[in-house]
Amino acid sequence: MATPTRQNFPNNQISISSVKSTLKVYSVPLLLFALSIFFQLIVVPRNFPTSHYDVLGIRKYSSIEEVNQAYEKITSKWDSNVEILPSVDLIEVRYAFELLTNKLLKRDYDIFNIDEHFHMIEKVKAQHTGARIYDIDLPLIKAAASDLEDVFSVINSQNFSSMFEDDKALLVQIISYGSNRCAQFSAYWKRIVNLLDGVTNTGVVELGDVQLAVYLAEKKSSAQPFFRNGLPALVSFPPGCKSSSCLQRYNGELSVDAITDWLATSILNLPRILYYSKESMVHNFLAKSKPHKVRVIFFSTTGERATPFIRQAAKDYWAYATFAFALWKEEDSSFWWNIFGVESAPAVVFLRDPGVKPVVYQGPINSSMFIDLMENNKLHVLPQLRNVTSVELGCSSRGYSRAGSDTKIWYCAIVAGRQSQELNKMRETMRSIQEKLSNDGELDAVDLEPISAPAVSALKQKRLTLAWLDGEAQKSYCFFHIHSETSYETCGPRRGMTDAAQLFIVRYERNATEEPKKDMKPMKTPFQAWHNVDADPASTLVAKYNGSSEISEIIRWMSKTIEDGDSRELPPFKTKVPELSPEEADYFWSQPSEKFLSSGKSIRHWTSGLYLQISDWLSDPRIGPSLLLAAMISFSFIWLKLNRSQSTQPSNRDESSQSRVKDENRPKRRNRRKNDSNKLIPPSITDEEPKDAQQMRFSDSDSE
Fold it and tell me: What's the per-residue H, E or C state across 85-105?
């Protein structure tokens, strides 16, 4: 009879569950242990490959003489007729020899771990595997094609601080005289320097100045300096930054366009200038531009983005002009010629007053030339009186005159009105008057017409300024000077179908006894501020013109007004002229906008910096041992905790059993005590019946 087989399924299930529970308890130390092994066997070897000194079998930072001796010792065992097998490290030995015997390359490798020719090893191996030793083209490392010492103007530790004397940003290129990449980039660097002229300071640092190069380099966790993307490396100090704590590093493509755009956008917060086609130029740029701004249009044949000095000018002159780019095409040349008079590109066009011929500049342009053009064309031909131009034009009651601070009396002829055909016609008339008075100013006093002599003389002496005023945008200023029944046709928002342009002259007279006011303490309440308003340093009188639009009649009236104002002693009229309102819609590149852009830029910079810090931290060789130590500590802590809990469980069982025994014995002891106590008490006579006792019964009759 066969014996039945034994089944151990419950025991197997118990063992599997115990293993699972053990693994679950020790999951954290096991994970840390696995991570430490991963870092030590995979991550660390990738970040710390075998050095070229190890290939030659010598200690790190050995001298060139020791490198030569090690190379001769290795190569003396080789035969030039032996074929090169894939396992032979001949090419690596030769490369290490050439690198470590070059003073510049050895210096860069020892201090900054720079090895830009490392890719040549695999390339040469792939080309010469199976060939003979003498078939290899030597040397493996090609020398720099040009002498960089004659190309770059290098700054050093002594004159580096002089680069921060002004508030401009600083762009620094870090190079090595032995680098081929730096030699190839030298032509691009010259182009970048030309484009940044007048916008940013530039300089070059060579690795030979170890102190300055280490100061500008990044630092690993081991404090070793390095350049993340090799050489050339670009770092920038933003405006106002004078230490390495706030410098920014460029990690993008080494091209002129990419570098200049990064500097202009990320470092300087300069606005971008858009390109327009011939259709969008009319509808989206010319039609939507503000009427008080000059329109500046650039024509380009390449379609490249605006240079930094143009973008800097767009930021500096945002209150005066608006900018646009157009791509020049031969099929569109007739269109541009008919509208702006542009013959070819590159060209710059300035559109000033409506109906005035554009100012066209043909040919390439640099920073200084463009700034001169902007200064000459930033205002309309007939300037507009605005809050940013009042002092420059001398039409300010604060005491500013174009003729100088010694001038006592000066005038401003202003034509005011809403944007309309009537205002445009009057502006055209005033431009003609300005041109005629300017041309007459070139004549001698004898040849001047008597009717225009006072006006011509005042214009020549800069005591007369002609301007126009937007009556709708500057309604307070307009109503203050034109206070009449018809002022609503000129000032304020349009209320009807009638628009009228009004010409008036403001006479400014400086009060000689008025001393400049010192800085006053700010008022606490609006009432105090209104009550303590001081009169303007110059008194004003207004004369309005009510005649025809004939040029000669207007000139006669202006001359008569100026002559009377200069000759007659008029009583001073002190008052507070309303301030000219700023154009809020154009307040885009103001300080709040810059703060918003800088905050967004700082967030992007912070996130990119955090990513680089994490990647650098992961390559730290101390992570593997740290994880192993953490795994051992965690394992020990869990083991001690489990042993402590197991040792306390038997004692708890003993205590519980003893308590149960005590509980069971308590009733018995009580019964025993009770029985013993009962034995000591004597029996009562009613407790037991006598043996001869009889029971007696009584009937009911007996009871009666």
Answer: CCCCCHHHHHHHHHHHCCHHH
CA dist 249 and 232 (Å) reads 12
Predicted confidence (pLDDT) per residue in 277-335, tens digit: 999 999 999 999 988 899 999 999 999 999 999 999 999 999 999 999 999 999 999 99
Distance of CA 590 to the CA centre of its chain: 16
β-strand pairing of 409-417 with 502-510? antiparallel
Which residues have a Cβ under 8 Å from the Cβ of 36 and sit 6 or more positions away? 624, 625, 626, 627, 628, 631
| pLDDT tens-place string over residues 33-81 | 888 888 888 887 777 778 899 989 899 999 999 999 998 888 877 655 5
Give dist(CA 521, CA 575) in Å, integer. Answer: 21
In Å, how far are 369, 385, 540, 568 from 572, measured between CA atoms?
46, 24, 8, 12
Q: Which residue is listed with tokens 């105090």? A: 528
According to DSSP, residue 384 is labeled: B
Burial 477-488, CB ≥16 within 10 A → b, else e: bbbbbbeeeebb
End-to-end CA distance of the chain: 95
Q: Which of 356, 414, 346 is nearest to 385 (CA)?
A: 414
DSSP alpha helix (H) spans, 367-419: 367-377, 390-393
Per-residue buried b or exposed e for 59-69, using 16+ beta carbons within 10 Å of the residue's own CB: eeebeeeebee
Q: Residue with structure tokens 């005591």?
A: 463
Q: Which residues contact 184 (CB under 8 A, 6 or more apart)?
A: 145
CB 542 within 8 A of CB 505: yes
Q: How far is CA 542 from the centre of its chain?
A: 50
Partner residues linked to 173 by β-bridges: 204, 234
- Report yes or no: 399 and 513 within 8 Å, Cβ to Cβ: no
Q: What tokens does 535 get?
A: 């009169």
Q: Which 3 state secondary structure label does DSSP give 22?
A: helix
- Of 61, 36, 112, which is closest to residue 621 (Cα–Cα)? 36
Q: Kindly list the strands in the beta sheet with 294-300, ordered across the sheet, starting from the edge strand earlier in the chain.
A: 275-276, 321-327, 294-300, 347-351, 359-362
DSSP state of 399: S
Strand pairing class (347-351; 294-300): antiparallel
Dump pLDDT digits (tens) for 552-601: 999 999 999 999 999 888 776 677 889 898 875 544 444 433 443 444 55
User: What length does the chain have?
Assistant: 704
Could you tell me which of 463, 451, 453 has the C-alpha nearest to residue 411?
A: 463
Within 255-319, residue ranges assigned H as helices are 256-262, 278-280, 308-316
Q: Where are the beta strands (DSSP E) in 262-399?
A: 275-276, 294-300, 321-327, 347-351, 359-362
Q: Are 670 and 662 in contact (CB under 8 A)?
A: no
- Does residue 137 contact residue 143 with C-beta atoms inside 8 Å? no
Q: What is the pTM of this model?
A: 0.76
State the pairing for strand pair 275-276/248-249: unpaired
Give the span between the Cα atoms of 182 and 258, in whole angstroms: 17
Residues in contact with 69: Cβ distance below 8 Å, sequence separation at least 6, in sequence order: none
What single string gives the DSSP state of each residue in 226-268?
E-TT-SSEEEEE-TT--STTS-EE--S--SHHHHHHHIIIIIT
